[in-house]
Amino acid sequence: MILALDAMGGDHAPTEICLGAISACSKYPDLEVVLVGDGSQIERVIKDAEPFVSKRIHVVHTDEYIAMDESPTVAFRKKKRASIRLAMEMVKAGDAQGCISAGNTGAIVAGGVLILGRIPGIDRPGLGVPIPLPNKITLLIDVGATIRCKPINLYQFAIMGEIYMRNTLGVKSPTVALLSNGEEEIKGDEVVCEARNMLAKANVEFIGYVEGKDIPLGVADVVVCDGFTGNVLLKFVEGVGEALYRLLREEMDQRILPKVGFLFLIPMLKELWNRFDYEKYGGTPLLGVEGVVIKAHGRSKARAIDSALKVARDFVMNRGVELIRNGLDRGGM
Amino acid sequence: MILALDAMGGDHAPTEICLGAISACSKYPDLEVVLVGDGSQIERVIKDAEPFVSKRIHVVHTDEYIAMDESPTVAFRKKKRASIRLAMEMVKAGDAQGCISAGNTGAIVAGGVLILGRIPGIDRPGLGVPIPLPNKITLLIDVGATIRCKPINLYQFAIMGEIYMRNTLGVKSPTVALLSNGEEEIKGDEVVCEARNMLAKANVEFIGYVEGKDIPLGVADVVVCDGFTGNVLLKFVEGVGEALYRLLREEMDQRILPKVGFLFLIPMLKELWNRFDYEKYGGTPLLGVEGVVIKAHGRSKARAIDSALKVARDFVMNRGVELIRNGLDRGGM
Q1: Minimal C-alpha gap between B275 and chain A (Å)
Q2: Cytoplasm as a keyword (chains A, B) (predicted)?
């Protein structure tokens, strides 16, 4: 299997991206990775890899890439040889079975639609991020591909998310819920309300509305919302983690006694951290486009890129795109 | 000062509501509270209060109240003697300077608009909840009064929230931010984008867009969003707290060593808890209506009701409604 990896996307590109490719290729002997980006920078990292790994890592050189703060659609049109664009064109041409980038989210979404195109029947794609909870994973979809949605978009996110959870993440009969401002049927605006009516008739385990508090409590396997709400929530979680970390450090600096306690607590905190570690699940699929496109977190280091490559590999092996295409036929999206 | 308190609203009504009234009246000798609800139930609780307190607690009896799961607008029209309605009518008639309820949020918002009316020029009211952060309080507005917003709504929430933070919570030159799906100007949908343009010209310390992660990090004093997003976020925070608590208990049950650490950690956790304790700030003002209306959390016990009465008292003393009315004139809302 060949996967195209945007070597220039993300805060730690290209070094950590290349190291992630080496790590994944060491694990999966069937995997070949094409690193797209600055050839000399890439070569400097991959030259030290074991031969049985390095023979499966290829390089496509380009000088262009799309920065995190560039306007995605403008940059995508202007930069014909941007690394993310070339990676997607490889998928389009059949030279790679999937592509991965830790770069500009807007560019990944725009590129997915412009280069690969939407699956026939799909109105808008959705980014579904797996959120690790204490005893399960919940897929939150959408987290930023489609900022404001029509009912059909929420409906299709639900169907695609359900297929992804069932087939790629291996959850049997995943439950699907719509995020709203209350559990009662009278809640929600017209868009959410209409999506609810559509989902009530769909061929999925639809459990109705859930509230914000139900997400961390793991009430549903797939939680559907528009990209604005999902993006705000996802980033809020990051902020809470950072704020708690700062607070713990501050407390540690101020007190003597709890420092001792902190030592005892380390195994517990490590365990907690492991449970919530996004790097383990470091890949967010762009669902609804004609090809495997995985977004990795902008702050991804080698381990997260390794996970994102695994997610792409699983998605390809489980024929995820084909399943969504068939799911549309079956569910009548 | 006379405040009308809905004795029948909330999960712990009427006992904890009545105890909250006793607690507040013990602290503030200038305060009189009218408890509106089932007279015999109320009397049973307040009969044990000290005479110098009980003489300042009055009862207005009614058999009707609006349940948490009732449709707010229907219930408000049908139940002419619902406790929350009578409390608001007292404010309207000038028999009380403000009212407080821990009941059905929708009914409080609908009642505020129907009974008290909007301040002239205000399109929709907003619920602004003070979120305690490590070193400050951030006001998140709206958290559920106006589910989907026009640009003018977000703009007016910002102006009203700024006035509230400055005058009632005593923050000098509060910074105001709009919640969006990214910090860059290209982010946001048309509504958020237009509100940004309006706020850039307003007479407040507007710092532009913030992302979800900036809320827990305390980047702004006032964070503005539509009621759908604010409600989802607020409830998400509750869920995170509950999930962490469950997880800690589970971990405690499974390990021996960290239990020792946990003992050492107790003072630290207590300190953390104190910092984030919503009961200390237990009152959410409904801004934009012609009167002081404070929503207390549905799970409020006596201490949170006591805080909500304090919030109402401060709001009355600081002439909050008048300031918003004047702020409109000044800012040209």
Answers
A1: 10
A2: yes
Interchain CB distance below 8 Å, B148 and A71: no
Coil, strand, or helix at residue A189? coil
Instruction: Give domain A1-122+288-333's CATH architecture.
Output: 3-Layer(aba) Sandwich (3.40)
Residue numbers in B near A76 (CB within 8 A): none
- Please report which residue ranges of B255-287 form alpha helices under DSSP H: 257-276
Residues 282-301 of B with CB under 8 A from A: none
Contacts of A134 in chain B (CB under 8 A): 243, 246-247, 250
Given B134, B235, B239, which is nearest A243 (Cβ)? B134
The top-level CATH class assigned to A128-278 is alpha beta
Q: Do A1-122+288-333 and A128-278 fold alike per CATH?
A: yes
Contact A228 B264 (CB under 8 A): no
Architecture of domain B126-278: 3-Layer(aba) Sandwich (3.40)
- Identify all chain A residues contacting B275, using CB atoms and an 8 Å cutoff: 247
What string of pLDDT tens digits covers the 333 residues of chain B?
Answer: 999 999 999 999 999 999 999 999 999 999 999 999 999 999 999 999 999 999 999 999 999 999 988 888 889 889 999 999 999 999 999 999 999 999 999 999 999 999 999 999 999 999 999 988 877 899 999 999 999 999 999 999 999 999 999 998 899 999 999 999 988 777 888 999 999 999 999 999 999 999 999 999 999 999 999 999 999 999 998 888 788 777 777 766 766 555 565 665 666 566 655 555 556 667 899 999 999 999 998 889 999 999 999 999 999 999 999 999 988 765 544
The tokens describing A98, both together, are: 């999937």
Dihedral, A301, A302, A305, A309 alpha carbons, nearest 10: -170
Eight-class DSSP state of A301:
-
Q: Where are the beta strands (DSSP E) in chain A?
A: 2-6, 32-37, 57-61, 98-101, 126-133, 136-141, 175-179, 205-210, 222-224, 284-287, 292-295
Q: Domain segments of chain A: what residues?
A: 1-122+288-333, 128-278
